Amino acid sequence: AVVVSTQSTGCSYGCHKRICWSQCNGACAVKTVMERLIQEGGSIEDFNDFWRIVTNNGANCEKCGEWCYLDDGAKGYQACSENSECEGVRGNKCLSHCALF
After folding, report:
1. What's the angle, vertex CA 80, arms to CA 97 and CA 68, rounded to 5?
2. In sequence order, what are the beta bridge partners of 67?
3. Where are the beta strands (DSSP E) in the chain?
4. What is the full per-residue pLDDT of the chain (101 aa) written as tens digits?
5. Would the pTM of this model clear 0.70, i.e. be above it?
6. Residues with Cβ < 8 Å from 84, sequence gap 6 or more?
7. Strand pairing class (4-5; 19-23)
């Protein structure tokens, strides 16, 4: 799969094995999440704060090789045949685990 990276966000995405995938924030994001929660006055007891930061939504990717297959919006994998077909869904939620590759 060819990796497509957006200059403004650093987030990567593409089409791999006919399924759209995206960079995701998992284990690598823990330090950043804690720093941002402290900076923004958020509470780790409110997991909405945590998920708001961890969810990459195609806009705030960590510089780490973690990837996941993307949800098509109906709890299925987003099918594709080329990278450009994944651009519009690169901010969708992960359907698979966010894993290091």
Report:
1. 15
2. 23, 99
3. 4-5, 12-16, 19-23, 66-69, 99-100
4. 445 555 556 678 899 999 999 888 777 777 777 787 788 776 666 666 666 666 555 556 767 778 889 999 899 999 999 999 998 888 888 888 888 76
5. no
6. none
7. unpaired
